[in-house]
Amino acid sequence: MPSPDLLEALEIESAPSPTGAVIWLHGLGADGYDFVDIVPMLGLKAIPTRFVFPHAPMRPVTINGGAVMRAWYDVRGDAGVRREDEAGVRESQQQIEALIAREKTRGVPAGRIVLAGFSQGGAMALQTSLRHPERLAGIMALSCFLPLTDKVAAEAAPANRDVPIFMAHGTNDPLIPLARARHAYDLLTSLGYCIEWHEYPIPHSVSPAEIRDISAWLQRILA
How far apart are CA 180 and CA 183, in angstroms? Predict the structure, then answer.
């Protein structure tokens, strides 16, 4: 049985005896099943990798009329601007850190762990990874933005200043405008982070071309 303090998660191994791990965070209202089907498409049989797909906690979401759904944090609409709930962001950050710690106890060092996410999950991947005290293998932030932007510079961990970052966004995304993702890219670049940036002619989704690029990136940093 999982620890009561640990998020429930689905796990898939690309091959036995994993030497690397990818913790992949889903978007608002989805769950850990959202990206399970992508694993076979990534071609990582030669690099034994454990994929961990946690389920975010259930909570009411203000912008969705207070409906209860899986969400990493609440989102409010203040004067027409979406704003993340900082307390919720930091609570989820601690829960994701616990998943990283578990991988370490299972023999996967921090330097072999990728934190990935889509949409709200991508925002949490950035939030957590940039502040993690040990160097990670990489950050994958898909169709997302940077939360708590005014605190990143002060809170960023020196260990991950040179961590490989893969950012991708759809040019036709109606939920998170490309400009918001670009703003995150510009801010992180100004702080010295090296980002592999990709744009695709898609809405708020993931495309076959994007999956191929993700595969190439993962194989490069986990090889």
Answer: 5
Phi and psi based region of residue 200 (left: phi greater than 0; alpha: psi -120 to 50; beta: remaining):
beta
Cα angle 185, 187, 192; round to 5 = 90
- Rounded mean pLDDT for each run of 10 residues along the chain, 223 residues in total: 73 96 98 97 96 97 95 83 88 98 97 98 98 98 96 97 97 96 97 97 98 98 95
Token reading at 204: 């708020």
Q: CB neighbours of 211 closer than 8 A, spacing ≥ 6? A: 38, 41, 42
Q: Tell me how far apart the alpha carbons of residues 17 and 30 are, in angstroms, rounded to a whole number.
A: 29
Query: Residue 157 in contact with residue 129, Cβ under 8 Å?
Result: no
Structural domains in the chain, sorted by start: 9-57+86-222 (3.40.50.1820)
Helices (H), the chain: 86-105, 120-129, 152-155, 178-190, 208-222
Please identify every residue annotated as catalytic. 119, 173, 204
Q: Tokens for 154?
A: 């002060």
